[in-house]
Amino acid sequence: MTFIRNNKKAILLTSLVALNFCLAAWGDGAAIGDKKNTIEIKDFAFNPQTLKVKSGEKITWINHDDEPHTVVSVGKKFQKSSALDTDQEFTITAGATGAYEYFCSVHPKMTGTIVVEK
Ligand SMILES: [Cu+2]
Q1: pTM
Q2: What's the alpha-carbon Rg for the chain, to the nearest Å?
Q3: What are 4-18's pLDDT values in tens digits?
Q4: Cβ pair 105, 74 in contact under 8 A
Q5: Which CATH code for domain 37-117?
Q6: Which of 13, 90, 101, 102 has the greatest CB tally within 10 Å of its CB?
């Protein structure tokens, strides 16, 4: 009887440990995927100003200002965003390698650069 009871406890404990590991691994992965290539628009600036990504990765801008902003590629190298309201996001997928400059068409002094690496 004692053996069975202990065994059940051991199985339960093992399951909990395994579950925790799974949750931890999943949580980390999601956090990296979500935050890695995010450019915050705040106080009339793109942050970070220059972002390095790998080709095929997604890049997301999020507007944390009360003013609307846009993301427009110099030379139309990638699709432009619509006017982003507060907390609105705009996502593109990085294509060919190179440096891509962009600006906000509402406030052209706001500029940033995406560097796409292999
Ligand atoms: Cu702007």
Answers
A1: 0.72
A2: 22
A3: 555 565 544 445 445
A4: no
A5: 2.60.40.420
A6: 102
